[in-house]
Design a protein that fits this description.
Blueprint lengths: L17 E5 L7 E5 L5 E4 L5 E4 L4 E3 L5 E3 L4 E3 L8
Amino acid sequence: LEHQVPGLRAQSPGGPVAEVTRNPQDQTILGLTNLSTSVWQVINDQGRIRQIQAGQTFKLSPGTKIDFGSVDGEVTTQVAVG
């Protein structure tokens, strides 16, 4: 939610700034959807840089680094979905 990530603004006041989602073609693959008004920068485990606009989703995989603007994050473990 907006109050949990300083500096990010939700598209709806006080609402979520991100959502963990499943890949529609492979339900075992998780992604993170940008629900904020900011553009995020993501560097995947292979060094590829992407800009994640509001509404876009990227795959959560170990080693992925996320620059949310005022806060950074990193995926450190493999997520298994059964």
